[in-house]
Amino acid sequence: xxxEHTGRFDGRxxxxxxxxxxxxxxxxxxxxxxxxxxxxxxxxxPAAETVAKELPGARALTVDVAEPAQVDRAFDEAVRRHGxxxxxxxxxxxxxxxxxxxxxxxxxxxxxxEVTGRLGDxxxxxxxxxxxxxxxHVLRAxxxxxAPRRTGAVVTVGSSSAFDTLAGYPHYAASKAGAHALxxxxxxxxIAFGVRVNTVAPGPTDTGMAARTPxxxxxxxxxxxxxxxxxxxxxADVALFLASEEAANLVGAVLLxxxxxxxx
Length: 264
Fold this sequence. Notes:
Blueprint: E1 13-17, H1 22-33, E2 37-42, H2 45-54, E3 59-62, H3 68-82, E4 87-90, H4 97-109, H5 121-146, E5 152-157, H6 170-190, E6 195-202, H7 208-211, H8 215-221, H9 232-243, E7 254-257
Parallel strand pairs: 1-2, 1-4, 2-3, 4-5, 5-6, 6-7
C-alpha cells in the first residue's frame, strides 16, 4: 500500500500524534513521502524534532495528549499556519511496564497473574488519561477544525487487546475498548459534517513499546501459525488507507490488523 501511492496526499495538511516513535513516526514518514505537509506531535519534543527534520516541510510540536490545552494549542498552530487540517492520525498512547512485568513473572512461574488487586489508582489513571482522555481531546480538537469546512479524515490507533483482553492488563484493555467506542460514536456524528473517523486496531507490533515488553510475554505473542509482529510501517499503511479517499465509504470502522491471531 505504500510506494505505488506516492503523491496520494499532495497538498494535504496532516497532524500526527505520537509521531516521535513507533507507529506515529512511521505514519508521519509515510504521509510526508506521499505529499503531505506534516505536523509531528509527541510528548517527547526532541523525538518529534528528530522525525520532523527528516521530512520536507514538517514541523515538530511538543504535545501531551492528556492535557487538553496542549492539544488545542497544537491544532491552533496548524490552522494558524495553513488555515486548515485535512488529516489527523492519533497514534499517541502508553502501556504499563510494571503490569507487564508482573504478568511475565507469573508466566515464568507457571501461575496465573495477579495484577488487578495490586494496581494503584495512579497507574490506572495514567493509562486512561493518555489512551482514552487523550483520544477524546484529539477527536474534539479535530472536529472543531474540520467540521466547519465539511471535510477531513481522522484515524485513531486502538488495539487488538480491546477484543482479546490480556489477563492482568485491565486498564490498557479498557482504555483501548473505550477509545474504539468513542471513535465510533464520534464517527457517526462527524460524518454529517463531512468528516470521516476510523480506527486501526493493531496486534503485536515491533515498536519501542514492544521492545520494552518482557521476553516471556513477547514469546507468548509469538505463534508460528500467524504472521510475526507487524512492522510500524505495515500499521501505518493501514492508517493511511483509512485517511485516504480510497476509504471514502469507511466510517466508524475498526480495522483489526493483528496478523491472523484472532477474528471478531
